[in-house]
Amino acid sequence: MPTKGVGRLQSRPLRIVVIGGGTGLSVLLRGLKHEPVHITAIVTVADDGGSSGRLREEMDMLPPGDIRNVLTALADTEPLMEKVMQYRFSTGTGLAGHNLGNLLLAAMNEITGDFVTAVKTLSGVLAVRGDVLPASTQSIQLKAEMTDGSLVIGESQIPLTGKEIKRVFLDPEDAVPLSEALMAIADADAILIGPGSLYTSILPNLLVRGLFEAITCAQAPKIYICNVMTQPGETDGFSASRHVNVMYEHVDKPFLDTIIVNSAELPTHVLDKYAEKGAAPVRCDSKRLRQLGLHVVAKPLVTFEDGYLRHDAHAVSKQVVSLVKRRRKVLKIEKE
């Protein structure tokens, strides 16, 4: 007979924690929110460019841009509301360049006096499916040491140098994670890392020490969703295993169980378009990935939208849910 604990495990919805930032995370969440799961998105707060950077500096608040994108991706609202959240002013003294969703979060932050409360309040307004949490409530600056010994300060500046990155690190290095994020990780059935910019969206979360410690202590499988294309200024020429190794080098230990990698052949005209910008497909070096102890899921998982390659959010989400359900079934059998 199943134990009482196993019965509870089987009856509750799958709880999936997704960690990252940038466009990649938002694309994934648009698919995952349609699955029968509870989502907690833990989002980087290292952004310092554009509207987010201006609000961060002028209003002494956490950068709202990545949080806004995630809220919009998880929202259960009319399409017009999404356009409102993503609207960027092109004119107006002081307004030009600002995103309306960022300004809404700034207003909520001023009204409530707390950024986390502001995010929760706006989540309610947008009928967000899940929880959205900043990785930390401290003001974090991302810095990079390049292979030539130079130092680059600021998340937005790192990919622009044209130099190879040796390592990135946080200032302050002892940033404290949000307690709710730690609880969500401990209670998760799966922890997803990515997709997203390796150095500027993923590593800023993993470098929040308490957050990474919670990830390593969690019983849930850790699944890395690898980018489809390399990113100029960050991952030029990187294979899938190099992405993994860079994470391991930064946190000083292996921690992933599974990697999801695209295996679809990409059309020549698409490759040519990306090549003009210095990007190429991330090579799935399956043998090396397995040598790292990873379970490799290599399948066609891309779509082409608005001139850009994106992860097929629904296909990736279904792969994730299938992996987690299979693991839950194994746990049930083991405990009976």
Automatic annotation (TrEMBL):
SUPFAM superfamilies (UniProt xref): CofD-like (SSF142338)
GO cellular component: cytoplasm
InterPro entries, alphabetized: CofD (IPR002882), CofD-like_dom_sf (IPR038136), Gluconeogen_factor (IPR010119)
GO biological process: regulation of cell shape
Keywords (A to Z) from UniProt: Cytoplasm
Signal peptide range in chain numbering: none
Superkingdom of this protein's organism: Bacteria
Pfam family, one: CofD
Cell compartments where the protein resides: Cytoplasm
GO molecular function: LPPG:FO 2-phospho-L-lactate transferase activity
Membership in a protein family: Belongs to the gluconeogenesis factor family.
Protein function: Required for morphogenesis under gluconeogenic growth conditions.
Name recorded for this polypeptide: Gluconeogenesis factor
